[in-house]
Each structure stands twice: as C-alpha cells, then as structure tokens.
Amino acid sequence: MPVPFADRISDYSKRIEARLDGALPAAVETPSRLHTAMRYAVLNGGKRVRPLLVYASGECLAVPTDLLDAPAAAIELIHAFSLVHDDLPAMDNDDLRRGNPTVHRKFDEATAILAADALQPLAFRVLASTPRLGDADALALVRLIADACGSRGMTGGQSIDLASEGQRLTRDELEHMHFLKTGALLRAAVMSATCVRRELDTEKYNALDCYATAIGLAFQIKDDILDVEGETGVMGKNAGADQRLAKATWPALFGLPESKSRCEELLRRGLGSLDIFGDEADSLRWLARYIVERPL
Ligand code: GRG
Question: What is d(CA 183, CA 29) in angstroms, rounded to the nearest whole number?
C-alpha cells in the first residue's frame, strides 16, 4: 500500500530545506550581511509548493528523486528572489512576509535588492552543477526556468500587474497577467520533470501543461481570495494589501463568489487533464486540491 502524498510531505520538505541550505553561502562568509540576508530570504519558512510540484510531477513520470532536487531548489530560489523584490517599497511595499519582517525591513533596501540579485544566478548555478543531470537535460531546465522568470514570464507579469493598479481589466487580460506573474513559475515546476523525460509522448506532455496552467491560475485567485478573507496572523503577511494598492484581482473585479467558482472550475480542469494518468498522478491531484483549499 503506497504511503499517501500528505504523509510524505515532511520528507520532501526536509529534503528541499537541506538542498537550499547547502546551496546558499554560509552566513559567516564575506560579505556576511549579504549572505545572512540571502539565507533569511530563503530559509524563513514558506510552504515550498513549487518544490513539492517538482517532486510530485517527477513521481508521475517516474523520474528518480535525486534528479529533481536541482530544479526544485532552483525554482524555490527564484521564487524567494521574486518575493524579496515584490515586497520592496518600489513594488508592493510590504513589511511582513512568512510571519517575519520583509528582507528590506529586517536589513535595509540596498541589502534586500542585492540579496535578491544574488539569488537568481545561484538558482542557475544549482542547475549547472548537478553531475547526475546530463548536459542536455540541464540546458532544457535552464531554458524552461529562464523563460518562466523573464520578461515573457514572471517579470513581465509583475510589470503588467504594477501598470494595472486601479485599472478595470477584462477577465482575459487579468488571467493573462496572472498566468505570467504567478502561473509561469508554477508551470515550470510541474514541467521540469519533462526535461529529464524528453522521450515523453505529446499527449502526456500536453496533459501536464494543461494541469499546470489551470492550477497556476487557481493559485493566484486563491491568493487573492485569502487577501480578502484571510487573517494576517494566519497567513504571515498583511491581509487587505491588494485593496490598499487597488490591485487588479479576481475578487476586486468580479467579486468573491465568482472568484471561488472560477477556482473550482480550474481545479476540475486541472484534475480532468490528469485523467490520462493512473495512480502515479495522485500526488499532483493532492496538490491541486491543496492549492484551492489551503488556509495560507
Ligand atoms: C524573480 C525574475 C524575477 C523577477 C521579479 C517581483 C517580480 C519580478 C515578480 C513578482 C512575482 C510574484 C511575487 C508573484 C506572486 C506569486 C505569489 C502568489 C506568491 C506567494 O507564493 P506562496 O504562497 O508563498 O507559495 P510562500 O511564502 O509559501 O513561499
């Protein structure tokens, strides 16, 4: 009887914490303030949803776990980088993240910018220094993750997000922005296992792509619902921030009931796209449900 994914999360979490810890420079290494800030940005909690998606997708495609550690760590480093920038005064100007002061509040703005700047190349270094990954697979991962975080992915989405404050976007415009800002990196997490299974047939590749797109959008809508309904103490970040910044979000533009039913619709679509797989996709199914039901 296989152990359910929920009971294996703590093992995967320990695994990714160890990989992140090992990849980051020691705090005592000069420049110590910069390295301390980098470690603070990454090792301060976080749900580790993206690494879990990497491992779950790897289970689905029977990829050995030790080939997934590098993409899992690289994607989480990029995610941590994006949160540091997202919280800066020039962006969302937040002072609380994961229940702690944001990096620029704990240290200072310049240190936060530099810590984030250093996390991005570190992510690509991790991908380039895993001997068991063949060169072609490592290059495919570099391309996948670079595309996800560049101007045609997360950075582009963030740019549209900032330009959309106070604007009345159409549903398609809103979802395009969300797909880039949040969905692209989540998609890269799901698709990274395909970079080491490049012989995968198109039907299965497309099924995973469809799942990734659906849960990526659902993740951001749920995030925006929590911003309205959640409590700061539970979420570890300030509730109501979207309203304060007049952000274009599903709840702001279409209301909470519509947002919840869109989330459910995306969950059904994500789960439906996995029908092509058997039990090997159960961990992905579990994560899809978690994404729309999570409390933080
Ligand atoms: C990193 C290349 C690069 C550019 C920066 C600032 C920026 C461009 C992009 C911001 C992207 C962003 C912060 C999107 C929001 C995604 C989101 C809902 C984050 C919250 O993720 P969780 O809930 O956080 O997984 P934890 O704390 O659990 O890790």
Answer: 35
Give the model confidence (pLDDT) of 93-110 as tens digits. Answer: 999 999 999 999 999 999
Residues whose CB is less than 8 angstroms from the CB of residue 207 and which lie 6 or more positions away in sequence, other chains included: 273, 274, 275, 276, 277
- Residue 283 Cα to ligand 1 midpoint, Å, equals 23
Q: For ligand 1, is residue 98 a contact (CB within 6 Å)? A: yes
Q: CA–CA separation, 97 vs 204, rounded Å?
A: 37
Distance CA 41, CA 123 (A): 14
Is the C-beta atom of 83 inside 6 A of ligand 1? yes
From the alpha carbon of 79, which atom of ligand 1 is closest? 1
Q: Which atom of ligand 1 lies at the shortest distance from residue 116's CA?
A: 1
Q: Note the pTM of the prediction, 2 decimals.
A: 0.97
Q: First CA to last CA across the chain, in angstroms?
A: 31
